[in-house]
Amino acid sequence: MSTTTAADLLSRADLLVRELRNSTDPVSLAEWERFDITAYRLLHELVGPGRGDDRTAVLAHAAVVRVLQNYPTPLRPPVGATTYSTRQAAQFLGLPREGVLHRIHRGHLPATTDGRSYAIAATDLDRRTDLGPADPSDPHPLPRLSCTFGALADLLVADRDRPVSMLHDDAQVAALMAHIITLTAVAARHTIGHCLATDADRPLRVSQFTEHAVDALGTVGRPHGPARIIRTAPPDHLDTLNERLQAALRNRSHADRSQRTRPLTST
Questions:
Q1: Structural contact between residues 134 and 34, judged by C-beta atoms closer than 8 angstroms
Q2: Where are the domains of the chain?
Q3: 56-59 contacts: CB < 8 A, separation 24 or more?
Q4: Which positions ≥6 away from 136 have C-beta within 8 Å?
Q5: pLDDT digits (tens, 9 = 90+) for 201-249
Q6: Cα distance between residue 218 and residue 207, in whole Å
Q7: What number does CATH give the domain 79-127?
C-alpha cells in the first residue's frame, strides 16, 4: 500500500522549483503552456465552488475568488469542467461579461438558459485542444513540476467531498494558494530567462499576476491541512490476506461515501 499526501506533493514541488532554478536547459513554449494550464487548474480546484448563504463565509471566499479571476486569460478550461456562467466564460475568452452576452445574443456562442442565467459548455470555450498534460518521463524539471501540480489538483478534487476537508476553510485555502502562487512565480521568472524572446509574453503576464496575487492575499498563516489530504493506492498484486482485506475495506468505504452523497428524490 502506498500513501501520498498533499503535503508530500508540496514538498516535491518545492524541491523541483529549486532544481529548476539551478537548471540551464532552455524552456520550450510547449513546456511552459502545459505548466500554465496545470497551474491554473490547481488554483481553480483549490478555490472551488462558492459558499452558502452565510455572509461571513461568502465574504471570506470572495477574496480568493478575486485572485483567481485576475489570472491572465486561461489557455484552457480546467479538466473535468462542464459548464460555466457568463462571468466565468468572460475570463476564458478575455472579454467583459457584456461581450459574452453580446456573442450569445448574436448566436456566435452557444448557450443554454433557465430563464434567469446562461450556461456555456466548457467545450465551446476550449480553444487549445492541442494542449495536453506534461510528459511525466520528461527529465526537465518544469514538466515534472507540472505533473506534481496536476497530481495535487487531483488530490484536491477527491478530498473536497469530505465534511472536514481543509478546502472548506478559506484561511487554509488562502495559505495554500499563496504557496502555489509563489512556486508559479519562480517558474514564470525562470522561463522568461530561458525561452525564446518571442515566447516570453505569456510567462511575463503570469509573473505579473503572481506579484499582485500574493499582495492581494495579504498576510497568511502556514497551511496545516495538506498533511490530512491523503490518497492511498493498492499494490498491483494483492498477494497476502491482509492486502486483500485492506482493499475490501477501502472499496467498502468508497461505496459508503457514494451512497451517503447520492441525491434522494423529494417525498
A1: yes
A2: 2-76+141-228, 79-127, 234-260
A3: 57/170
A4: 143, 144, 147
A5: 999 999 999 999 988 888 777 766 676 676 655 555 556 665 555 555 5
A6: 18
A7: 1.10.10
